[in-house]
Amino acid sequence: MKRILLILAVLATWQQWDRIEPMLFGNNQQVAGKGEVILYATSWCGYCAKTREFLDERGIAYTERDIETSTDARRAYDALGGRGVPVLKVNGTVIHGYDPQGILAAY
Predict the structure, then answer these.
(1) Domain boundaries, the chain
(2) Does domain 31-106 match CATH 3.40.30.10?
(3) Distances (CA, A) of 75 to 52, 58, 65
(4) If we measure between CA atoms, which residue out of 62, 48, 42 comes closest to residue 99?
(5) Cis (ω within 30 of 0) for the bond into 86?
(6) Alpha-carbon span 99 to 86, nearest angstrom
(7) Number of other CB atoms surrounding residue 89 within 10 Å
(8) Which Pfam families would you find in this protein's record (predicted)?
């Protein structure tokens, strides 16, 4: 029984690490960078919400374009090879999905 609880605790910690890490080590991961960040997203997407939260926590300015309400945003999303949301264009680099390390590397 103790092993099962330990395994569940480790899995829960791993799954929520992006929220736990700032509590343990402080939220000093502000990113000093320049450039254009465009987030192609929808209002209902959970990973889009996580991406918004990630960008906000690090002080990264971004422009959000909702692909369901804007035909221009949808065309741009399709041109980037959008297959799902979120899709980010960070300084010319296209990132598909929620990818914190990819965002930081491109920024």
Answers:
(1) 1-29, 31-106
(2) yes
(3) 21, 29, 11
(4) 48
(5) yes
(6) 10
(7) 20
(8) Glutaredoxin (PF00462)
Per-residue model confidence as pLDDT tens digits over 35-83: 799 999 999 999 999 999 999 999 999 999 999 999 999 999 999 998 8
In the beta sheet, which residues pair with residue 96?
A: 87
**CA angle (10 as vertex; 17, 52 as ends), nearest 5:** 20
The torsion angles phi and psi of 95, rounded to 5 degrees, stand at: -120, 125
Identify the helix (H) or strand (E) that includes residue 35: none
What pLDDT, on a 0 to 100 scale, did the predictor assign at position 68? 96
- Return the residue matching tokens 């971004």: 62
pLDDT score of 10: 79
Q: What is the pLDDT of residue 93?
A: 94
Distance, in Å, from the CA atom of 95 to the CA atom of 64, rounded to the nearest integer, reads: 14
Provide the pairing of β-strand 93-96 with 37-41.
Answer: unpaired
